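User: Structure tokens for both sequences below?

Assistant:
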Amino acid sequence: MKTLRIILWDHLSHDISSLSDLDMQMDTILMCETVDDCTHVKHHKKKLVFLLSAMRHFAQELIDKGCTVIYTKLDDPLNGGSIAAEIKRRCTDTPFDQIVITWPGEYRSIEVFKKLRNERSIPIIIREDKRFLSNLDEFKRWASNRKELRMEYFYREMRIKYNILMDNDQPCGGKWNFDSENRKVPKENLEIPQTYSSMPDAITQDVIKIVSREFDNHFGDIQPFHFAVTSEEAQQAFNLFIKERLSDFGDFQDAMIEHEPWMYHSHISFYINVGLLDPFYCVKSVEQAYYDGRVSINAAEGFIRQILGWREYIRGVYWLKMPEYKNLNFLNAKRRLPEFYWTANTNMNCLKQCISETKENAYAHHIQRLMVLGNFALIAGIDPVYINEWYLIVYADAHEWVELPNVSGMILFADGGLLGSKPYAASGAYINKMSNYCKNCHYNVKEKNGLNACPFNYLYWDFLIRNRKKLQSNHRLLMIYSVLDKKDKASIDSIVNDAKIFFHELDKLPYDNSKSVS
């Protein structure tokens, strides 16, 4: 049977299910660079270089193995501009008996393939993505009849299923979760190893030129470009993490330091999410490092929880709740995204640091995303449509299946608590504790009110006041609201007035549409 096998830009694994029964003599593999993929949101330029270069390198690996590969480049004059158009073109050129593809990472793509299946006489087979450790039916069964979908319980079941960090039927170290030991305050003069760096080869250099030419109005810096773009390089990046940073990852997982964007994190989400690294291999490797005595339990468990727990759980929530999930806005947030999310032109140093590093690297670690960039979006009441689009644009590891539940559920509480048990709102005190950002800030984190006060301080309380009707019954906020109720009228008035002045100035800022499609 003559088969056309589709490889998307996040399917770059030789073990992907769409290639599992490849007939080297009969089958053709189709890979396409399309304007539609590059611009359905205006992805960070460095993200595009990474994705397109990784695609080209993977295609060459397939060709070197003897596969028949049709590869459509962006500058191909016959490029149809979308994956659907390219499939139709290739099926017109050559008669195929069937089309095979692995389950994609975005709901919009599933809709494209379902529509194609209805339009074409050729059967289109959509296979399970076996790179994930929990399939969608399994997650659906786990989630059935649960009012709250708490990751912790799902994670424990995954640990048991795969026998990871288990001592017979009990978790290693006597606890399932060592998160409380992963919040050490960053010490001065930490020696933080450099992240993995690869020199761009001829393929990557060519992609850099194309992205610079075709997508110059997109957000972000291209140079310097040092990401891995092959599975071999991704493996080197992961090995470097285990060797140099994993031992400190647990302790300083939540720490933030000026001009240190990489900290002790692994920076492998780019590679796992497109297929250059196998997630279970990463889990087993870190587990072995713990068993060998090279790293502590809090470092190993903290890393494994992110992949075996959080990553699998987030994907399950996405596919369980789409397409409705994308439109949720429990707190009725309506503010547009401030221009400084693109320019970093703000007096709030924590935001300036995180946005600047995002612009430079197409990366920020999870606490920067959650407790600085996301925290501000939450307490400022930014519409989920805008902030979701921003996160999808700016981060090289962002694909909608992972971005949307993290932002709408974890960051914005837009799902009303389906994913997170409470809104992750915080005052400036948290940022001051976990970073050195406040030392060089225009505002004073110790001041609670007034023009010199850190805006996070009064915006935090104003957020709780504004959303009291929807949040006061949340059991994890009962103590916070009891503290609020003890404030006198003058204090409440100061909070509300400071927030009003801040929002008045914020809303006067222009909204830069040049980086956005909304």
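Moving on to the next sequence.
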Amino acid sequence: MTTSEFTPDERTILRNNYRRLLSLSRELGAEDDVEPLKKLIRTSAREGVFERNKHGMNPLVHNTQTALSFCDRVSPDRSIVIAILIFRSCYAGIITEEEVAERWGDDVAKLVRGLLKVSTLYSKSAAVVSDNFRRLLMTFAEDIRVIIIMIVERLTLMQAINHHPDESFVKEVASEANYLYAPLAHRLGLYSIKSELEDMSLKYSNRRIYTDIAHQLNATKTKRDAYMKAFIDPVKEKLTAAGLNFEIKGRTKSIYSIWNKIKKQKVDLDHIYDLFAIRIILDTPPEKEKSDCWMVYSLITDMFQPNPSRMKDWISIPKSNGYESLHITVAGPENKWVEVQIRTRRMDLVAEKGLAAHWRYKGIKSESNLDSWMNNVRDILEAADSGPMELMRNFKMDIYDKEVFVFTPKGDLFQLPQGATLLDFAFNIHSKVGTQCIGGRVNGKNEKLGYKLCSGDTVEILTSPTQQPKLDWLNIVVTSKARTKIRQTINEINNRGTELAREMLERRFKNRKIELEEALLMKVIKKMGFKTVTDFFREVTAERLDINSIIERYLELQAPQEQEEPTRSASEFTLQTETDQSVSRSDDVLVIGTGIKGLNYRLAKCCNPIYGDDVFGFISAEGVVKVHRTDCPNARNIKERYPYRIIRVRWSGKAGSQFIATLNVLGNDNIGIVTNLTSIINKEKNVSLRGISIDSNDGLFHGNITVGVDDLSSLNSLIKKLVTVKGVKNVQRSN
């Protein structure tokens, strides 16, 4: 942005701001910083760093205004002024943090780093309205001064957007200022900034109410000023006669405060008794502060009738944040209630501009660890002889060091304990998400279940309906919710396995034409050394017990006449089942997609069946039916070893979701061949590219391409098209 792109008003503001900052540089001892700053700003302007934002605002004007506002409202500080002026240049990459540290020192670099980290939060707009956003802001800032800069910057922005044409933008800024920055300003003792933010927030969010109250205050100003004069004049005479040095101020409460009182008390403006307050500020030595304040109290209550119920003594026992003042309410002229605040010059400075003002005053919500942290701020400030910003340089922002704050891709913010993993986050979202979690993407990068989360991470959980919790997950998670749900789900799986083992046992007895008696089975279980039936069936499920040996034990305990009954071998039964498929009952066929009650199925990873493949089912030890292709490399071995655990399976209806298939590709290592392959996949309807791994050697390439397809016909169609790519020698489906 060149000077020709500035409006006349902006050029005037920028010129005045430059002169004031130049004057401040002498006061701050930073005259050597002026030329490097000018050079950096010129370079940044040429690179477009200060181009107007989408709301038409000039960043350079805003930066200089913020720097000056900080000096006026808080405290002049070299590091902070420089950090405010160069932050956008660092954000745009014109200058690095290392170069900042080398030219202006580590303290400036530290502030810039904090501002850069905080700026990343605003790309996650949904989180700003979260209760955890303030905590995350404090965590990211690292330095208390960064928080104060953010507050002052927001005040500068609020002052600049009056009558801005984009009403939705104005209301968004106003809402954020009222929700986030005004409470922070209150907690840090920036009381005047807090009041200004609240007033402007009401003005921008509900201009009609703000204007009505402002007009009513203006209409009664003359009358109100006359009343305050009538109250103050006799008080002045009394205090002067007592030999006190003092200043008396009369102030009307802020419009936002008045609006809150109107809502809370459900009255109109005329019935707000403490619409204005009188403040008496004494110039007195420290050793006489309390006695002089009580002397003023005595003089005023001699003149006007006090209201004992509204007397507040924060001099004898100051507030926990260090606020000291004596508040009394008396019946003034015309018998109207008037609030009088009595304090010394030191007390007034702490309350109005200090960093430890009354942040808990009148119902501001607080948290115990933040309370303690703010008390530390107060203690440091009260014990200090130098300026407040000098003290804050090494003050650590570690109030939330035992927590991490992470985002969902939509910007929702979650709070977890320090050390929480990606799996903890999955269970924190929902128990089902946790039990089906297979990993996740953290800041766009694939991560495993045990990845330890850091504040500010954006986490997307990946799930699979076939995933089940495992015992070693308990070594990954740290939250009690995750641990409880993992144990609960594993127990449920074990119980299902027990039920399946009983069904398998009953089926084998039936196939051998042996009548199963419960009492006799209990004897077998006892003779085999099991204390409980559950332990017995768990061993069956885990395949540590052979069902044939159990049957033999059972037969040994039967009566002699029953033992002589002819039995069929397992091989005979297998032959009969495989050859007599036409008479099999329908409930012996698992129909994929219909959700057979009591049975879960999983697509076997050894052959990755997809919709349309000829398949069969194998009942695993966990009670889950694993679906294999009939041409699976393991099919023959499975059918020979476990014929009694084979069930028929068929596909039902249409494919409901995509299936994973891996293709082995071989061809000449030509330039662009991989691009051509992926281009065909991306253009193919109902096909998605899931992964690709290519190696080349001696002019040939070979590799695997993983795709998601709806059915077998889609996969075959894709293979035919990939084979036509120039240089491809062979494409075939992997087992």
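User: Anything stand out in the second?

Assistant: The mean pLDDT is 78.
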